Every structure is written in C-alpha cells, then in structure tokens.
C-alpha cells in the first residue's frame, strides 16, 4: 500500500494507562501518529488518543486482546488502512496473577500459566508476526517489548509471571538475531509507581515496598510510567545500533546483595 502518512507510526498495546499511555503521549509529542490498543478499557484508551491529538498528530484507539490472533491482525490492518505504514511496535500489554509467595505452588495452576503466557508471550509474538512485513519497509523499524526484572531475577507477582517475562526476554534476543534490520529490544522495569501495581499489591503493601526500595536501592528511587516511556523512546529514536538488548530499569535493585 502507498505510504499515506508523512509522520512515523507506532502501535502500542495496553496503552489505556500506565507505561503504555505515557509512551503514547511521549511519542505523540515527538510528532508520531499512534495506534493504541486495550483489552477492555476502551473509554480510557479513547481519552489517551484524544490527548495525543492535542500534539497535532492522529491517534486510533482499538479494543483488542493480543492473545487473540485475529485481534492482532485487525490492529495491523486498521493501522495500515489509516496511515499505510508502521515504524515502531511497543508490546506493552501484560497480565499477571498476584501470587507473591513463590514457595506456595498451590496458588497457581496450568490455566493460570496458559492465560499469562497467552498475553505476555504469545501476544507479542502475534503482534510482531502480523506487523513484520510493514516494519521491514520503514527506514527506522523497531520493536520494544515491555518485560520485567521478574524475568531476570525470578521475582515478582507470581512464578508464572516471572517465567513469562523470562520467555519474552529470550524471544527478544532470538528475534533480534533474525529479524534485522528491525531492531528488537526489551526493557525490564522493576517496581513502577503506578496504579496497576498498587491495585495488585494493595495500597498498604505498595507504599511499604516503595518506601523500602527508595531507601535501599543504589539510586534511592523507583521508576514511573514516564521514566519508562523515556527509555522506550530512546530505543526507538536514539539507540539505532542497539538490538537484542535487555535494559534493566530498577534504580539498581538487581545489584543489591
């Protein structure tokens, strides 16, 4: 299809809030047209799309479940029909089951693993598969997978979540090796000061964990959706010779003994 847009185009999954929303707004402020997806919160996604358009760009909000391959294909089709190009894919949609006690295996079952893997691993695979031919036509194509320190350290909300992010990290490296000139990287945040983690932990545990990290990690700080978005932007626009990288963004938490 003819390239309809002079502005670069990014697709961001899970973009109705948190890291996805912050990334959409940041890219829009840099002159990018944006497709935002969400699985259920389409009202919020439309609000983020409208905020993106305040930067004199276009935005498209789509309700889509990345675990459904037809939804992934539809997202790509709608994006290409509107703008005729895809320059960046940010796989941010994710899910978990909060089962913090990793020693208690009774908290998880096969269905939990399958649900979490279908969103956190199969979803990114399907989005990449559907968008690959169009990314290949870009003069600066990139894929950024939003992973987690859980996938490196084996910590986090549940064993299933950590395992899914570990698999996403491995897939990132495999694809970076084989999909050039598309650059494929992952960011691995630690604790993010945002609503998703607060809802999963509960406010009391969230506040305690945040306070503890801010006093013990080397940088005495935790990430926010906005600081994570800045690193995603760097992978897209600045780090043009980087691929297959897993960037840990945890204030140095992983360095603690």
Spell out the blueprint of helices and strands:
Elements: E1 9-12, H1 18-29, E2 33-38, H2 42-53, E3 59-63, H3 69-83, E4 88-91, H4 110-135, E5 142-146, H5 150-153, H6 159-178, E6 183-189, H7 195-201, H8 203-216, H9 225-238, E7 246-249
Helix pairs in contact: 1-2, 1-9, 3-4, 4-6, 7-8
Could you walk me through the main structural features you see in this protein, from its secondary elements to its overall organization?
The chain has one domain: Rossmann fold. It is built from 9 helices and 7 strands; from the N terminus they run βαβαβαβαβααβαααβ. α3 runs parallel beside α4, α4 runs parallel beside α6 (159-178) and α7 (195-201) crosses α8. The protein is globular and about 50 Å long. It is an alpha/beta fold and 257 residues long. The longest helix has 26 residues, at 110-135. The protein has a 7-stranded parallel beta sheet, sandwiched between helices.
Main pleated sheet: 7 strands, parallel
From the coordinates shown, what is the CATH architecture?
3-Layer(aba) Sandwich
| Mean pLDDT across all amino acids | 95
Spatial order of the strands in the main sheet? 3-2-1-4-5-6-7
Kindly list the characteristics that best describe this protein:
alpha/beta, 257 residues, 9 helices
Q: Would you summarize the structure shown here?
A:
The protein has 257 residues and is an alpha/beta fold. The protein contains nine helices and seven strands, in the order E-H-E-H-E-H-E-H-E-H-H-E-H-H-H-E. It has one domain (9-193, 224-250): 3-Layer(aba) Sandwich (Rossmann fold), CATH 3.40.50.
């Amino acid at each position: 299809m003819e390239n309809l847009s002079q502005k670069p185009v990014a697709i961001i999954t899970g973009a109705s809030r948190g890291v996805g929303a912050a990334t959409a707004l940041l890219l829009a402020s840099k002159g990018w047209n944006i497709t935002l997806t969400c699985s259920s919160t389409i009202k919020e996604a439309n609000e983020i799309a409208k905020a993106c358009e305040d930067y004199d760009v276009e935005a498209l909000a789509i309700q889509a479940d990345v675990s459904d391959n037809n939804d992934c294909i539809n997202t790509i089709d709608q994006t290409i029909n509107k703008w005729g190009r895809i320059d960046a894919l940010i796989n941010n949609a994710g899910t978990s089951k909060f089962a913090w006690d990793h020693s208690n295996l009774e908290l998880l079952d096969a269905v939990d693993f399958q649900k979490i893997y279908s969103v956190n691993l199969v979803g990114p695979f399907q989005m990449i598969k559907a968008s690959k031919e169009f990314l290949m036509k870009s003069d600066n194509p990139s894929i950024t997978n939003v992973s987690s320190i859980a996938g490196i350290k084996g910590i986090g909300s549940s064993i299933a979540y950590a395992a899914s992010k570990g698999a996403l990290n491995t897939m990132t490296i495999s694809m970076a090796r084989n999909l050039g000139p598309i650059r494929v990287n992952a960011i691995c945040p630690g604790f993010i000061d945002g609503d998703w983690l607060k809802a999963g932990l509960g406010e009391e545990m969230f506040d305690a964990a945040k306070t503890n990290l801010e006093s013990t990690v080397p940088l005495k700080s935790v990430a926010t959706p906005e600081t994570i978005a800045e690193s995603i932007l760097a992978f897209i626009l600045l780090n043009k010779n980087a691929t297959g990288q897993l960037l840990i963004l945890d204030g140095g938490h992983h360095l603690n003994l």
